[in-house]
Predict the structure.
Amino acid sequence: MKAGVGIRALALAYPETVRTNDYFRTNHAQVLAEAQQKSLSRVWSPHKTTESARDIFNEEMAPFLDDPFRGTVERRVLGPGESVYSLELRAAREALAAAAMTPGDVDLLLCTSLLPQAVGIGDAAFLAKDLGLRGTAWNFESACSGALVGLQMACSLVRSGEYRNALVVVGCSYSQNTMETDSLGWTCGDGAAAFLVSSVPEGSGVLGFKSLHTAETCGSLYYEMVAEADQAPRMFLKANPQAGKSLKVVSESSLRASCEGAAQAAGVSLEQIDFFVFNTPLAWYASFCAKTLGVSLERTINTFPLYANVGPVLMPTNLYHAAQAGRIKPGDLVLLYTIGSVSSAGAAVLRWGEVALGPSPVAEPPPVGAGHWRPGAR
């Protein structure tokens, strides 16, 4: 049996500013009136891409097609004096505090964000400096699968004996990289997460991984430098007209391969999994994943109504709230699944242990269950 390695502590950091749909109704009424011709509606509209008798993705998306926000309810966005880096630093400090560890206990820091404050360099070395770490610090990138890839790298390096304690930090600043006048940004928010990976009792921790590339989505989403009037040029997220079709195809093909592969690597079946944590970049994504795998919605969680799409922070956010609500308990088998465009998709199976949690970023936890809600009016 492999030496036990897993998550020892998990923390989230989100901005205080909450932006509801009324913000866009008030400030961008013309864009809203033309919503069906804008990016969001073009990307997430029905695409016939499968020969199977049942198209679960389109079925689960259908109730949201009359909603110009595609099911988005709230987003937490950076306010004055905040940055993705400040969120990353706060999450890292709270993960250390939850684990009762000092910076001197951490000998490896792994960091990824969309996009980092230090574009072209990454935030890892800055975090190491401000945290007072003495070990090494690396940047990496795998889009919305960043947290799972960071977990896999950290577990492998700790299990090898090369490092003892690894701190993984992920951040997202979509509100800074999407235009308010582009409806694609209406589904996006900001946030950060951090988790500590260390040795855990044998038989617990991460038991198996499976990862796949998502090269089929190359070109679907991309960043473009744009100079707005009287402002410095910034990188903005864009989508090509075929983005929805290619992302849907990958969603259908990678989900089962990743989850079944991770279960096989762990020596278990999907039927033995107690709880499933899918990343939720769309209002209907958890429900799509659950129905594709034949999993009860009561064995999943969907925090999209609270946070919208926060890229690599999605999976640790869902995992945190599932643990906080007591929906996963020590000894449970948990499956994590993430998918990122122009990067990777993957899954991990772990036996949940005694994981310390940082303070909750929201006063009211997300509702129990996933996929039960439908478009709101807020």
User: Anything to note?
Assistant: The longest strand covers residues 190-199.
